[in-house]
Amino acid sequence: MSGTRKVLVAEDSSVIQNLTKKILQFQNFEISAVKNGQQVLDKISKEDFDVILMDINMPVMDGMACAREIRSLSNPDKSQTPIIAISGNAKNYTMDDFKGAGFNDYLPKPLDFDKLVETVKRYSEHES
Hints:
Blueprint: E1 6-10, H1 14-26, E2 30-34, H2 37-46, E3 51-55, H3 63-71, H4 76-79, E4 83-87, H5 95-101, E5 105-108, H6 113-125
Parallel strand pairs: 1-2, 1-3, 3-4, 4-5
Helix pairs in contact: 2-3
Pfam families: Response_reg
Keywords: Phosphoprotein, Two-component regulatory system
Domain Response regulatory: 6-124
């Protein structure tokens, strides 16, 4: 098993961000957190992550636009990072919409934390 898996949490709600961080840290993930899509792009330009958890509705740049930006990056290590959408507003989107934007998977809010851990583990253990 390689070292600690790094997860980037992009979520503008501090409550959800903190809960997600605590749960994943308990599972031995290293967590970084940001509040909007532009911060995601800034962060991944400097660091590599195993998984990105991304809220859809964020200020500055939303999750859909950010996922498209990530998928268009020239560095394949970064452009192919698994991205999991998290949203309480998913009825506005279909799984095809999420896939079209470049998301690998989707978790509805309120988050089911068992499913969150299972999904993050599944994508972080997948070596491309």
